[in-house]
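Tutorial, part two.
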Amino acid sequence: MKVIDFAETNSVINQYVAEIRDVDIQKERLRFRRNIERIGELMAYEMSKELTYSVKQVQTPLGVAQVSTPDDELVVATVFRAGLPLHQGFLNVFDRAGNAFVSAYRYYKDKECRELDVHIEYIASPNLTGKTLLLVDPMLATGESMELAWKAFLSKGTPKRLLIASVIASRQGVEHLQQVFPNDDIALWCAAIDPELNERSYIVPGLGDAGDLAYGEKL
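Running the prediction step on this input gives:
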């Protein structure tokens, strides 16, 4: 799997990442959601360069223009609920894309909150056969929820191509996906890759719980 880390280059994405990490700025839910959305828009632009293009003729009021545009049938897929702002950012750019959603949540199987599992209970998706699937989720911790989401979406057909995007990833999560997807025709795009997970499988330094920061704390 090819891995692209935007933090290795200088761009405005770094500013938005800094703000969603900042403990004071991230208290503003609207700003937090919008920054995630902005990151999605910029990542979508960069990922659009990897699509398949062909030249088409466009009729203007004064003549015919030749324009190279994408040929891919796109589907933007995300995981409820934390993935919604990032999904919206991608949809702002790929406004003709189909949409797919899966409900996945993680829970601890022990009182010490050390043994983690992921449960999937809902999926809504168009037929994915032959499509280019953009699987987007703001946090890539262990990588297990992303893997399970991918397997769930396969029940809706086999995509022609898979591109994955995450805002904050852990090195462990990246390595897990590299084992799941060993081929270079699948790419993972990250705004930042952090070095470790803590004992509760949260990314460190990370940013906290993206879903709670975007929509409020849950019971």
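The two ends are 37 Å apart (CA to CA). In part three we will examine how such features are distributed along the chain.
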